[in-house]
Specification:
Blueprint: H1 4-22, H2 28-41, E1 46-56, E2 59-71, E3 75-80, H3 87-100, E4 104-109, E5 119-123
Helix pairs in contact: 1-2
Length: 130
């Protein structure tokens, strides 16, 4: 398995750099594009607006939701640009992780005065290798 902790750390580092340079107040789509580009330039494989299907009651919905960024096919990144992260944002990401069967996700809110206050790392049945 890829070192998801190292990937998470790299994503957080890039998000902090972007926030310092661009500041708060831009649209989520801007932060998404810049973060994806920065990570790709650093050698990471990044997919944007990844459609995710679900099956419910024997019905298949091919594009039930879209994940902002999917890094190295193992880290889900949800980007926000809101005044304050709410419980609903964490629940949204946890549901994405569960439905995608992924262990770790980052919730990044670029609207705070500092990026540090807008970073949430969420796990779904994640057990780091020892």
């Amino acid at each position: 398995m890829k070192d998801i902790d190292a990937i998470s750390s790299a994503v957080i580092g890039e998000a902090i750099k972007i926030h310092r340079e661009l500041g708060p107040g831009l649209l989520e789509s801007v932060y998404e594009a810049v973060l994806a580009g920065s990570l790709e330039r650093s050698g990471y494989q990044v997919s944007r607006q990844v459609p995710v299907g679900i099956v419910y009651d024997e019905m298949r919905f091919d594009v039930a939701f879209r994940v902002d960024l999917f890094v190295e096919d193992c880290l889900v990144v949800e980007i926000k640009s809101v005044e304050r992260l709410g419980k609903v944002h964490a629940k949204q990401l946890l549901t994405y992780l569960r439905l995608m069967k992924q262990p770790v996700g980052l919730l990044l809110n670029f609207s705070g005065e500092t990026m540090k206050e807008g970073i949430r790392r969420l796990v779904n049945d994640y057990r780091p290798e020892v």
